[in-house]
Design goal:
The structure holds 2 protein chains of 2 kinds.
Chain A: H1 2-30, H2 41-46, E1 63-68, E2 71-76, E3 82-84, H3 87-95, E4 102-103, H4 114-120, E5 124-125, H5 134-139, E6 144-148, H6 156-162, E7 165-168, H7 175-189, H8 192-212, E8 221-227, E9 230-233, H9 239-246, E10 262-263, H10 266-272, E11 276-281, H11 287-291, H12 301-304, E12 308-310, H13 313-318, H14 322-337
Parallel strand pairs in A: 3-4, 3-6, 4-5, 6-7, 8-11, 11-12
Antiparallel strand pairs in A: 1-2, 8-9, 9-10
Chain B: H1 2-16, H2 24-47, H3 58-63, H4 68-102, H5 114-128, H6 137-155, H7 165-189, H8 194-202, H9 210-237, H10 241-246, H11 251-273, H12 279-291, H13 295-318, H14 328-350
Helix pairs in contact in B: 2-4, 2-13, 4-9, 4-11, 4-12, 4-13, 5-6, 5-7, 5-11, 6-7, 6-11, 9-11, 9-13, 12-13, 13-14
């Protein structure tokens, strides 16, 4: 009697472990960035390209309640000392003519792209983006902290004790989410008008760049990160392909996977048939170098057509923002059309 | 009097050991089943991928590959299948060796710090000296595996003659945790290669090329031949140290050679495929149940069984998120973790 009970308990324990493991494995895949809804006509006039989820009615109030990914935060006055825990938020600050007092720059200031660097000026590094240094942030006595809703979720409570903290998707954010986060950050900074002007300008820059591309552009472009142990493609809904789509260049990867990035083999790459490839390689030898020796590599349309371009991972991948998007779109147009 | 007390513990030890008797018929059937499994897996592995390719192209692809479809089979799918078999063989045999050497059924390369050592050194190379990565990683992995293995042995006190299995396991787990945390520190500090390194850390043969097989093969052959040649000594070791010594075995030398072979096999496998989890634990245990504990039979069968397990894990991983890649280590961990728990619980009851 007791023997069979032990057996049952053992079976249940093993089953529970398997199920937990399976669920955990599933979780990683399930979290997908949501695309913002199409901009509503009235709001579009108010802030171009921003989704209606952003609470623009808070603009200009002395105490503004900002909706963000980890809740709502009320900010009063005009924050002057701001800490940015992702390059995206440095972009947002520069877009409204401000500069951060502290940046989580991975201790590598050169990762701040040239388009932002001069305008950022002097700042204090607060360490790695993945693990910013709380003590350094505290010592800066900031008025506002802008954090990544994925990376910094665990330290959000700690950050909130230092200063009002707003958090948005940057690491896994798409182009729409990045634009929305720039506007929301501007609301928190009490710089609504500046950001609205900048967003209008951004829309115009992007439209002008799109106009440089032939209207019947039918080529697809794949954006990939090449590293020592992998070849990572970014599907249509990710940030960089989103930027390229605005100027009329589509991604060859199916967009139903809901992933921020996917791992590719040479076979999948050949089957994907990208007409253009933008490759952001890491330092040192990468898997691409090995693949380039294979005769199959030459079967990829982008290689056949000689439309494979190496691009800077700082500009194309790490600095997801409004200004960075213009840099990416500009470079893509130059590389593809020579204009 | 003195003869009595000396004989008593030895007899007990014999009783506690599983039976070394193997039925020849059983071994034949298991070997046949494994071979059928491997052949079926190879065909299955060659037939799936993002490109639809009919299997009738297979002979052409092996003889001469001109067309893209044949090239895909020849330069992408075939090395992937072959590497899965090689890596599985290396890790499973290393696991069986480790269990014999440590006299501990729960010993396995990933539990004894050997895999973690290889991983740490490879990640160190990728993140700190990116220009170093590539071909020399296999030697670096040996260094890491050896350093971790030797430290674990020293920590467990093997310099002073006898090693208690429990101390060896504890030292291994401690060293593993330390090395895994250090690896994580490296990854956090270097955002550059985080994605791809994390992928490799799970372990898999997704990006296999013939070059990987060329790197692995000499070490695999050396490791397997060495292991098979040791089978008899390992059988004697299984009788207990005293008995083995009594039968003229140099127990320390057997342990040292076995450990060196584990380092060669694991270092080579990890450097090309990452630390595919639980192969060294699961395969020897399943096969021990089927064919008994004689290492002359067990080690060759482990090399086939390990290959089959990694091959099928890789095939199932391709169905998770097609056409994109998921490392096979995810699947082996899903199979291995419950089996580990089961073994650990059984162990508590019998000991």
């Amino acid at each position: 009697m007791s023997h069979s009970a032990t057996k049952v308990r053992r079976a249940v324990a093993v089953l529970a472990l398997t199920v937990t493991a399976a669920v955990l494995a599933g979780c990683g895949a399930a979290s997908s960035p949501s695309t913002g809804a199409a901009p509503n006509a009235d709001r579009a006039a108010a802030a171009e390209g921003v989704s209606p989820d952003v609470n623009l009615d808070q603009c200009g109030k002395p105490a503004r309640t900002v909706k963000h990914d980890l809740g709502t935060t009320t900010i009063s006055g005009s924050p002057a000392k701001v800490v940015a825990l992702e390059y995206s938020f440095v972009d947002a600050l520069v877009a409204v003519g401000m500069s951060p007092v502290g940046v989580a720059d991975d201790g590598q200031p050169e990762r701040i792209i040239p388009a932002l660097r001069d305008k950022v000026g002097e700042y204090k590094s607060v360490g790695l983006r993945a693990t910013p240094n709380i003590q350094v942030i505290t010592a800066l006595k900031p008025d506002l902290i802008v954090a990544d809703s994925g990376r910094h979720k665990a330290i959000y409570a700690q950050l909130s004790k230092i200063a009002p903290t707003i958090a948005f998707a940057s690491l896994n954010g798409n182009y729409q989410q990045v634009l929305d986060s720039e506007m929301s950050t501007a609301i928190a900074l009490d710089k609504c008008d500046e950001m609205k002007t900048r967003l209008t300008e951004h829309a115009k820059v992007m439209a002008d760049l799109k106009a440089k591309a032939p209207a019947d552009e039918s080529r697809t472009a794949l954006f990939v990160r090449a590293s020592d142990k992998g070849f990572t493609g970014f599907p249509a809904k990710a940030y960089t392909p989103g930027v390229l789509e605005v100027i009329g260049i589509r991604s060859p990867l199916p967009d139903d996977s809901g992933e921020a990035s996917v791992s590719l083999t040479l076979e999948t790459l050949v089957a994907t048939k990208p007409d253009v490839m933008f490759i952001a390689p890491n330092e040192g030898p990468t898997l691409r170098d090995t693949w380039a020796k294979s005769p199959l590599w030459r079967e990829i349309p982008a290689v056949k057509n000689n439309t494979t371009f190496d691009v800077d991972p700082n500009e194309w991948s790490r600095s997801r923002g409004l200004i960075a998007a213009e840099v990416v779109a500009q470079e893509a147009v130059e590389l593809l059309y020579g204009k | 009097m003195s003869v009595d007390t000396a004989a008593q513990p030895a007899q007990e030890a014999v009783h506690q050991r599983p039976k070394i008797v193997t039925s020849k018929q059983r071994v034949t059937w298991v070997s046949l089943a494994l071979l059928v499994l491997v052949v079926a897996g190879v065909v299955w592995g060659l037939s799936i991928g993002s490109q639809q390719i009919s299997l009738s192209r297979l002979p052409g692809a092996i003889v001469r590959a001109d067309e893209p479809d044949e090239l895909i089979i020849q330069s992408i799918r075939l090395p992937r299948v072959v590497l899965a078999l090689c890596v599985g063989a290396a890790l499973a045999v290393a696991g069986a060796l480790m269990q014999a050497v440590a006299a501990n059924p729960l010993a396995a390369p990933e539990i004894m710090g050997v895999n973690a050592g290889a991983v740490f050194v490879v990640v160190l190379a990728i993140t700190v000296v990116p220009s170093l990565s590539g071909a020399p990683t296999i030697l670096l992995a040996f260094g890491g595996a050896a350093a971790a293995g030797v430290s674990v042995m020293l920590l467990a006190g093997s310099g002073r003659g006898r090693v208690s299995p429990v101390r060896l396991a504890l030292a291994g787990v401690t060293a593993s945790s330390l090395l895994i945390s250090l690896t994580q520190v490296l990854i956090i500090f270097d955002e550059n290669s985080t994605d791809s390194v994390l992928f490799w850390l799970v372990g898999g043969v997704n990006f296999a090329g013939w070059q990987d097989i060329r790197n692995l093969l000499p070490w695999l052959v050396l490791g397997l031949i060495g292991a098979f040649a040791m089978a008899r000594s390992l059988n004697l070791l299984a009788l207990g140290d005293d008995m083995a010594r009594g039968l003229g075995q140099n127990v320390e030398r057997t342990r040292m050679t076995g450990s060196a072979l584990v380092i060669v096999l694991c270092g080579a496998a990890v450097s090309v495929a990452g630390p595919v989890a639980f192969i060294g634990l699961v395969v020897p245990h399943i096969l021990r149940r089927l064919v008994g504990s004689s290492y002359t039979v067990l080690l060759p069968l482990c090399s086939i069984g390990g290959g089959a397990l990694v091959l099928y894990a890789d095939i199932s991983s391709r169905y998770v998120k097609p056409p994109f890649e998921v490392p096979a280590g995810v699947v082996t961990a899903l199979i291995g973790a419950p089996i580990f728990v089961y073994l650990a619980r059984r162990q508590k009851v019998t000991s």
